[in-house]
Write a structure and sequence with these properties.
Rossmann fold, 16 helices, alpha/beta, globular, 2 domains, single chain, 43% helix, 13 strands, 7-stranded parallel β-sheet, 6-stranded parallel β-sheet, 369 residues
Length: 369
């Protein structure tokens, strides 16, 4: 079978979506040695960064497609790159399929956030640009759901959301849980490096991420600092201004993108990871923290209960007081028991398991042709 994978958003600099696509590719190649994989990257540098030594695998063909995601060229030009390769199956690991490509596809839908949150507060675009983009988002997502042979989702929560908006898609849905591959350095003793009163946030700064709640909480936690790590922070200036207005610059650090070694160090050093989000499709950073023995403070939303079970400390994402109470639980709760249980929960999630399930989906589609 000749399988294409759109890798233009792969790599750690593309946040959770980038990690998903990178690990999908790296784990599925050894599983499907009889198949040929055509990997569409934006540049050779990106391909080298993602594939590393696996570039030499005999069942790989790298195709450079310097086409920006969510662009007009993605719709008008990219399909012809796909057609040229005469693929048996194309996997688009996001909703941004090309409308002109009509051969068999698999899509991954990580969430339907923009179905549920819209308007001027969720964008940096001017109103005309935003509503045009929003209109085409619905067109493209609807086409992806309608035409895909199978739709992969990371959680039961997302599956329910997709079914809510597209009931006809229920029979196509397959849950492929994500994983984590960060590991604690063998020489590190957490109890010796854990810093008191240092919160860590890892992710983008979109409004639904709700980081302002944590910043507001800092005003009542004079000894606590917050480190913000994120590669795709289009709302960075707004959050920086929010911090300045509250005179908290000396206690909030913006690090931007950091590599995995530095990220691991931050997880291990921090008192807790905080996830105040109002909406998510999974909860990857929380699993990373749990695997490394770092407590997780998470908003009390369905997806986090599904993924973290009872291995996190939950709070109401609309209440600063609730967040502060959760923070105080760090000193009251038996953290040894909590982090040990959290590591057990995190161990349930594996990129290899995700890749195996995805490969099985490919094979099932191929057998039905």
């Amino acid at each position: 079978m000749k399988i294409g994978i759109d890798c233009r958003l792969s790599g750690k600099k593309h946040a959770g979506l980038g990690r998903y696509t990178e690990n999908l590719v790296l784990e599925i190649l050894p599983l499907s040695k009889e198949d040929t994989f055509v990997l569409f990257f934006t540049s050779l540098d990106q391909a080298s960064e993602v594939l590393g030594k696996k570039q030499s695998f005999p069942n790989i063909k790298v195709v450079i497609t310097p086409i920006k995601h969510y662009s007009l060229k993605e719709q008008l030009v990219l399909p012809w790159y796909y057609y040229k390769e005469n693929l048996d199956l194309l996997h688009v690991p996001h909703f941004n399929v090309a409308l002109l490509y009509t051969k068999p596809t698999v899509v991954t839908i990580h969430d339907l956030l923009w179905h549920e949150k819209r308007g001027g507060t969720v964008t940096t675009l001017n109103p005309v640009q935003y509503w045009i983009k929003y209109f085409f988002y619905h067109i493209v997502t609807g086409f992806a759901v309608h035409t895909a042979k199978s739709i992969l989702v990371p959680s039961q929560t997302v599956a329910k959301t997709v079914t809510k908006y597209y009931p006809q898609a229920a029979s196509k849905l397959v849950i492929t849980k994500e994983g984590t591959n960060l590991t604690k350095p063998k020489t590190t003793k957490t109890k010796n490096v854990r810093k008191k009163n240092q919160l860590l946030y890892v992710g983008s700064l979109y409004p639904h991420k709700n980081i302002q709640l944590v910043i507001d909480g800092l005003r009542k936690l004079p000894q606590t600092t917050l480190i913000i790590v994120g590669a795709r922070n289009v709302f960075l200036k707004k959050v920086e201004e929010y911090v300045r207005q509250r005179k908290l610059q000396h206690r909030v650090s913006f690090l931007g993108y950091v590599n995995d070694a530095d990220l691991t160090k931050l997880y291990v050093e921090s008192t807790a990871l905080v996830q105040p989000s109002l909406s998510e499709g999974f909860g990857l950073t929380g699993l990373e923290a749990m695997k490394l023995g770092t407590p997780v403070l998470a908003s009390d939303i369905p997806i986090f209960h599904e993924i973290y079970q009872d291995a996190a400390i939950f709070f109401n994402p609309h209440s600063v007081e609730s967040f502060l109470n959760a923070y105080q639980m760090l000193s009251k709760k038996s953290l040894h028991h909590l982090t040990k249980h959290a590591q057990t929960v995190a161990a349930e999630y594996s990129w290899k398991k995700m890749a195996k399930k995805t490969a099985a989906v490919y094979q099932t589609i191929h057998e039905k042709k």
